[in-house]
Amino acid sequence: MREVLGDRHEFALNSIANFADLLREQGRLDEALATLGDVTAVAREVLGAQHARTLKIEAIAARLAHARGEGTAALMAAVERMEAVLGAEHQQTRKYAAALAEL
Asked: Which residue from 33, 42, 48 is spatially nearest to 13, judged by alpha carbons?
């Protein structure tokens, strides 16, 4: 996908973040961090901070940070931004709010 769309395309950013999340779920935290790289910053730059995919990517990065022992503050902030921008009933907001509640 990267070869066709490039590293800055919305779908490529989303796919990279999803792959990093899969690696996190498998406990491969260093690989997940390396895969995620600067995707969050690029998504903010290309899509904007209020874009639904940017918010999802930020939540994925926050879950990875938590798995690496960095606490829940980043995920709490991501969920709060999702609620403000997307609404509390949005599918992604509910998914990451549930993930936060499980921690």
From this structure: 42
Using a cut of 0.70, tell me whether the model's pTM lies above it: yes
- Compute the distance between CA of residue 76 and CA of residue 97 in angstroms, rounded to an integer: 8
Phi-psi group of 51: left, alpha or beta (phi > 0 → left; psi -120 to 50 → alpha; rest → beta):
beta
pLDDT (0 to 100) of residue 2: 67
Question: What is the domain extent for residue 84?
Answer: 2-102
| Tally of CA atoms within 13 A in the half-sphere of 10 that contains its CB | 8
Q: How confident is the model at residue 5 (pLDDT cuts 50, 70, 90)?
A: confident
Q: What is the CATH number of the domain that holds 21?
A: 1.25.40.10
**Apex CA 38: angle with CA 94 and CA 87, to 5°?**
20
